[in-house]
Amino acid sequence: MPTLTEAPPPPSPPAPEKKPPLRRGRWTPYWLLLPGVLWLIVFFAAPMIYQASTSVQTGSLEEGYKVTWHFATYWDALSEYWPQFLRSVAYAASATVLCLLLGYPLAYLIAFRAGRWRNLIMILVIAPFFTSFLIRTLAWKTILADGGPVVDVLNTLHVLDATGWLGWTSGDRVLATPLAVVCGLTYNFLPFMILPLYTSLERIDGRLHEAAGDLYAKPSTVFRKVTFPLSMPGVVSGTLLTFIPATGDYVNASLLGSADTGMIGNVIQSQFLRVLDYPTAAALSFILMAAILAMVTLYIRRSGTEDLV
Amino acid sequence: MTTKATTSRPDAADRGGDVRLTGIGKTYGSFTAVHPLDLTVEQGSFFALLGASGCGKTTTLRMIAGLEEPSSGTVHLGDQDVTALPPYKRPVNTVFQSYALFPHLDVHENVAFGLRRRGIKSVKKQVAEMLDLVQLGEQARKKPHQLSGGQQQRVAVARALINHPKVLLLDEPLGALDLKLRRRMQLELKRIQTEVGITFVHVTHDQEEAMTMADRVAVMNAGRVEQLGTPADLYENPRTTFVANFLGTSNLIEAEVDTRGGDDLVVRAAGGKLALPGARCSAPAKAGGKVLVGIRPEKISLTHADDAGSVPEGRNRVTGRIRSSSFIGVSTQYVVDCPACPEFEVYAQNIDRDPRLAPGADVVLHWDPAHTFGLDADQSVLAGTTGEAGIAEGGAA
């Protein structure tokens, strides 16, 4: 039978309850939260507090460290290591842009054009995760080795002259240059770009493309005005998932780079593990965290993703 | 915009804006979605493609829009062959089934989309006028998801109409709305169509929707056009059992041709004789051949068996016993067990109700022979009925 009201019927009033709800029921959600909260306390809150206190301690390894609220450590760390900070941001940003340029077409292909190859390509995207991060990065050392085929080809094509002029490579070498580090970062974080991009592209209703075409949009305009704006959530989460870990990464810089390409991750690692200057290392970690948080907040604000469906 | 559109309404002689489908067909592998068909939609008319789901009506529409490439045949808009043109180069616009509004754009930008793509810079006035036409002027800055279904539907119509297409294609645009809203939008769409004078091609599975809105209806079944005509013509003179059952309800009686005298045809069914105008029989009628005789439920009068003598001479009559009756206000619907037809349906207007007409009562059903129609007996009696058997039969027909 047709309903006679236009508006959906108002939610039916809750059935009268015979028994008052059990006391236990009210606490159930909190009990269910407990494992997660415990996990966060043990592995996030506690280390953070410990690090924060370390960063304002003074002393030495022999005499032990005491909390003296010595905030000058932050300033000293920043003034000594700002080039590494800048380098980290620059490398991570370059790698993010490269990942976006490489990943978007691939994600688009998987989402809209791959047909029955879709699953195979997805597996290929994820396959590198079956090997250790370290091994994969070491493999790039071989790929970019001096006198290796890649370097030879780049040399023959005079690409290295151009990149050398830009300061990305030096002489006949690719290894131990900024280019090598950015290549490693791009390679290692590419799946983190592709997966969110694919997810958001795949969610786009194909009829929107048809509708745009029906409304006189050429295929390129359909992409500019419909597909790309609707994939913005994927672009934003992909760039964040790439940029944030890439900024703090030290494996690529230490395996593929040189002393001149050190990133902030390398400094923190050596302060903690070799120099054993715990306060400086902790302070650097906090500065890095704050910087990333600030950049990410700004980025999300600018891209206005909260406005997207 | 109304002035421009109404003046573009053609004279009877001007057929420059007709949609002509010539031998157009679509196959997917070994499955034929649309058998090659010819169809002409006159400029300025409201045309409906009616059929059950999977009958090929949406595919036909999409081939006009250019969203589906026909396997054979051509599409002409006026004198222009648009078969090879991509959708964005065709002067047609579509209202999609689920509206397909751009979720990242507000109502104003959704409506302005087509204009902007054609390089029109000052869209503000046109968009405002169009939104007024569909009564959404207040909602211009809202996002689609903030609107109700009916409002989204009107945005979809506005977004298509603002481009002054030669043809507006509507793909089940009212399917997602509740019944009352659907009725209102039917009137609304009809009003807009009359106002702007653009050709509307409307795809629907709702026979009532097709009949109330369209000037002409093509009933499609299993990839073919079963019958094409005005709603009244289709209803009064169905030529196949599918059309007879799909549009409203028909009582179909299996009968044998007895004699053909003058314009009338006399048939024998379950011991009785029935007459029908020869012109209303779409089957070849030779003596001894089988035909299906049809009669619409509301054409039939119901008289209690005790008063059988009062039934005027010359009317077709069938006897039976009332199985059930349901009172629905304006009329009472009876199901009568007859030897001729197991479930004879009769709709009697509630003018003077005879209290004796209750389940179990013996009755005489009688009607004017002129209202009777004849169909080819070589088809399933159930084709086009809503039951499972009907759909299966209809699909195989």
From TrEMBL, chain B:
SMART domains named among the record's database cross-references: AAA (SM00382)
EC number: 7.6.2.11
Key words of the record: ATP-binding, Cell membrane, Membrane, Nucleotide-binding, Translocase, Transport
Organism: Streptomyces olivaceus
Recorded catalytic activity of this chain's protein: ATP + H2O + polyamine-[polyamine-binding protein]Side 1 = ADP + phosphate + polyamineSide 2 + [polyamine-binding protein]Side 1
Identification of the protein by name: Spermidine/putrescine import ATP-binding protein PotA
Pfam families the record matches: ABC_tran (PF00005), TOBE_2 (PF08402)
GO molecular function terms listed in the Swiss-Prot or TrEMBL record: ATP binding
InterPro entries documented for this protein: AAA+_ATPase (IPR003593), ABC_SmlMolc_Importer (IPR050093), ABC_transporter-like_ATP-bd (IPR003439), ABC_transporter-like_CS (IPR017871), Mo/tungstate-bd_C_term_dom (IPR008995), P-loop_NTPase (IPR027417), PotA-like (IPR005893), PotA_ATP-bd (IPR017879)
Class of this enzyme: translocase
Family stated for the protein in its record: Belongs to the ABC transporter superfamily. Spermidine/putrescine importer (TC 3.A.1.11.1) family.
TM stretches of this protein: none
Domain ABC transporter residue range list: 19-247
Described purpose of this protein according to its UniProt entry: Part of the ABC transporter complex PotABCD involved in spermidine/putrescine import. Responsible for energy coupling to the transport system.
Subunit structure: The complex is composed of two ATP-binding proteins (PotA), two transmembrane proteins (PotB and PotC) and a solute-binding protein (PotD).
Gene: potA
NCBIfam families membership: potA
